[in-house]
Every structure is written in C-alpha cells, then in structure tokens.
Design goal:
The protein is mainly alpha-helical. It has one domain. It is about 85% helix and about 0% strand. The chain is built from 7 helices and no strands. The chain starts with 8 loop residues before the first helix and ends with a helix.
C-alpha cells in the first residue's frame, strides 16, 4: 500500500508541532521587522549622505558664515552636518557677543559641535543593534525549533516496530524548515548591519573632519 505524503512547504508548516510553529512564527516576525528596518535605515543613511554633501558644497563656497547660519537655522529640513554647524556657530556668536576670551569661545563652540555630533550619530545608529540581535539569535532560535521537531519525530517512531524513510522524512523535513527560516532572517540582517556600520563610520569621519576644519576657521576669525 503506497501512502502519498505531502511534503510541500505549506503542508510541512501546517503539520508541524505547536512549538515548531511558534518558532517559525517568531522567526517570520523577526525577518519582516529586520527587512522593514533595513529599508528605513537605507533611506535614512542615503538622506544623511546627500544632505552632508550638499551642505559641504554650500559651506566651502566661501560665503559669509553669519548669512549661512541664518539660512540654515531657518530651514526645517536640515540635519546632520547642518545641525553641527548651527550648534557651533550659535555658541561661538553668543560668546563673542559676551566678550569672552577667544580660547573660551572656541572651546565652547567645539563642545557644542561635539554634543550635536553625538546626537546625530545616535539618531543614525538607532535600531542597528536590533539588526545585530536578529542576525545573531535567529539561527539559534531556528536550531531550537529543529531540535524540538526532530525530537518529536523520534518520539513518534518509538511506538513503531519498523521505521521507514517515509515515516522519518516528514518529521525531519518540517523540523529543518525552522533552521532555514532562521537563516533567512539572520543573513540579510547581518549583511545590512555590517554595511550600515561601515557607512556610518565613514559619515562620522566626515562629521569629525568638518568639526576640526570649522574650528580652525573660527580660531582664525577669533
């Protein structure tokens, strides 16, 4: 008697035990969340790089800094390097108006720019740790589902006098699906995390370079 066993993906998921199905559902949620964050972070970093390039081009045209400050501070769409510039120039202008010493004025401007720099980097790094977490734990969650499914398969075979491949294959196949879903969730998250970390390091270097160069300009003006 030939018994046809449905080994399609949907059938194996539906026939899996409750624990394995819960593991699969959790991994599917983590995968969807990580892809959502991947696209959001991609757009955020691209916008930051584009805004940084545009502001650098505007800044190094050599125009009046006070005029640039007024124009940038009134803009509601600026971010990144513009915020660092406005924070530093605002503090510099305030101390100059108060008649502070040049050393004190420059130090205050640098501290204001460093604080703005840290806020911008923190905003860009938000949710990156989540991608790292998904990339590191998803394979282990999938492995847990696989181990649980295989364990249940062998427990079911304990009451069978003679085990055949047809009896073993469905249980092992549905268990291995959990590992496959875990890898599907982990690999894109790890790739995106490494890529975005590299991009943010380069962007942070551009921010720090601007702080040093702008500090030199303020020092010469002081």
């Amino acid at each position: 008697m030939n018994v046809h066993t449905d080994l399609s993906f949907v059938a194996l998921v539906l026939q899996a035990s409750v624990v394995v199905q819960a593991v699969m559902a959790l991994l599917a949620f983590l995968s969807l969340w990580s892809w959502w964050q991947i696209f959001l972070k991609m757009f955020q970093i691209r916008r930051a790089v584009r805004d940084t390039t545009a502001f650098e081009d505007d800044f190094w045209k050599g125009g009046d800094l006070a005029e640039l400050y007024q124009r940038v501070s009134q803009s509601r769409t600026g971010a990144g390097l513009e915020h660092i510039f406005t924070a530093g120039f605002r503090e510099y202008a305030k101390h100059r108006k108060q008649g502070s010493a040049s050393v004190v004025t420059l130090d205050a401007a640098r501290r204001a720019m460093r604080a703005a720099y840290q806020r911008e980097i923190d905003a860009l790094e938000a949710k990156l740790s989540g991608l790292a977490t998904v990339g590191s734990v998803s394979p282990y969650i999938g492995l847990f589902g696989t181990v649980w499914g295989i364990m249940n398969s062998f427990r079911g075979l304990a009451s069978v006098g003679q085990a055949t491949l047809a009896q073993v294959a469905p249980g092992i196949a549905e268990a291995l699906i959990a590992t496959a879903i875990g890898l599907f969730a982990a690999i894109p998250a790890v790739v995106a995390y490494n890529r975005y970390t590299h991009d943010l390091d380069r962007l942070a270097t551009r921010y720090e370079t601007f702080i040093e160069e702008f500090s030199n300009i303020l020092q010469r003006q002081g």
